[in-house]
Every structure is written in C-alpha cells, then in structure tokens.
Amino acid sequence: MRGAIPVDSCLNFDERELRSLLTNALFANRWTAPIAIAYLLGSIPFGYLLVRVFLKQDIRATGSGNIGATNVARSGAKGLGLVTLLLDLGKGYAAVMIARALAVHTLGANASGIYDIEVAAAVAAICGHVFPVWLGFKGGKGVATALGVFLALNWPAAVAILIVFAVIFALTRYVSLASVIGSASFPVFGFHFVTQRTPIVWFGFLFIPALIIVKHHGNIRRLANGTESGFGSKSKSGADEEADPRPGSAARKADV
Fold first, then answer.
1. Domain containing residue 62
2. What angle separates helix 143-153 from helix 186-193, to the nearest 10 degrees?
3. Is the residue at 146 inside a domain?
C-alpha cells in the first residue's frame, strides 16, 4: 500500500523513542539524579556497618551512640575508626564528583550551572550522612563527609579548613571544638577561593557548616560549662558520671 511505513522502520523508531525517554527520565532534569545519588551515597552508614560486620556490635549502643569515626575508634577498634573516617570522607568526595560528571553529561563541559549542581549534591550528601534513611534518619554529625565534599568543591578551601582544625585541636585537644571552628571557617575560605556567587552556592556554603554546628549543640553546651573532655581523656569529674550513669557516659563528653 502506498505510503505505508516499513515494519523495520517502526521498530527502529520505537527503540529510539524508548532510549530517548529513558535517557530523559534520568538526565533531562539535571538536578534529580545528582541529588538522589548524592543522598544515597551520603546515607551509607560505614561506621555502623564496619562495627556490625567486624565486631558484631551495634555502634549506636556504644559510647555516644554516634555512627561516626570518633565513636567507632572509641569502641576499641582504632583501625575501624580510621577506615570509617576515610570512607565517610570518600563518599562525600564521590558524591560531588559524580554530580559533576552527570552535569557535564547533561549540560556540556562548558555549560553554566554545573557548580550549582555540585553544591546541591554536596548538601544532599551531608544530609544523607546526618539523616540516613536506613537508620531512621539518625546518623552522624557530618564532619568527615563535609571534608570530602569540601575537597571536591574546592580543595584549597578544604586544606585551609584542615589546617584550622589541626591548630585548634593541637592547642585544646578538643575534637568537637576543632570541628565546630573548622566548619565555621568554610564560608570564609570557600568564598575567598570560589568566584561563583549564585543563591545555591550561598545556601550550600552556609547550610553545611550550620548543620554541623547544630549537630554539635551538646558539645558546645559542655564546652561552655567546662565539662567537655578532651581527646583521649576521661570525664572531667565524677559528677559527670553520677549525672549520667549509663555505660559510655564519659565517652559522650567528647564525641563529634
């Protein structure tokens, strides 16, 4: 019949359409895939998993109950604490780098808006660590993961933050204080080294340190009261133990 479309052409057309629809579903919305992947990466509770696998314990029932590297090391497995630190840092770094790759794939290497997507992914990764869906949205405080995203977003700023952390820790032996001050310094160094000033960049550079500081509210209160314990030290006084007689109460004083 004149004007009929060959069957092979129809099949080829449908295949192309299906491929296009699948591609658009994943990448046409330039925000969905990077943010979703970043959150899921950030939500992997490495500290919880490592302690569960190697020590057959629930890290949430040890020390402060935090799933971060400090509490994992405090559980008696310093090697697992170091591995947790590196993995938490790595997942933050990977989340931003994956977001960058997806953004380049979707928008092109020289397109504007790529850095905004990276910052959004950084925020999502931190939220994943602090509020992991797998653990009832009760996770860590985000310090190591934040360092990972900072390294990916702007490594000179991350190095400057690390130096601030090291100096404060060396002077005070308070991991919590070093974490809070280091996090608070990120906007200063971030905006010094990064030229973009979009609303998303402003939000990300302020939200991430703010969330970390808020998660340290208990440490800040103890620092103000003089009851925070330095790294490797015991509780400041016997009164602290009497006030909180639960196992690991002394460890809670310096948890980050």
1. 30-252
2. 10
3. yes
The Cα–Cα gap between 91 and 95 comes to 6
CA atoms within 13 A on the CB side of 53: 8
208 neighbors 126 (Cβ within 8 angstroms):
yes
Per-residue pLDDT of the chain (256 residues; tens, 9 = 90+): 455 545 444 445 466 676 666 556 555 578 999 999 999 999 999 999 999 999 999 999 988 788 999 889 887 788 999 999 999 999 999 999 999 999 998 888 888 899 999 999 999 999 999 999 999 999 999 999 999 999 999 999 999 999 999 999 999 999 999 999 999 999 999 999 999 999 999 999 999 999 999 999 999 999 999 988 777 665 454 333 333 434 444 444 445 5
* Residues making up the chain, counted from first to last: 256
Q: How far apart are CA 84 and CA 159, in angstroms?
A: 20
Q: Would residue 223 count as lying in a domain? A: yes
Look up residue 212 and give its amino acid.
I
Q: What is the tally of structural domains in the chain?
A: 1
> How far is residue 13's CA from residue 21's CA, in Å, rounded to a whole number?
12
The tally of CA atoms less than 13 A away on the side-chain side of residue 229 is 19
Q: Tokens 């700023």, residue?
A: 157
Please indicate, yes or no, if residue 127 is contained in any of the structural domains. yes
| 89 is a domain residue | yes
Q: How far apart are CA 256 and CA 252, in angstroms?
A: 9
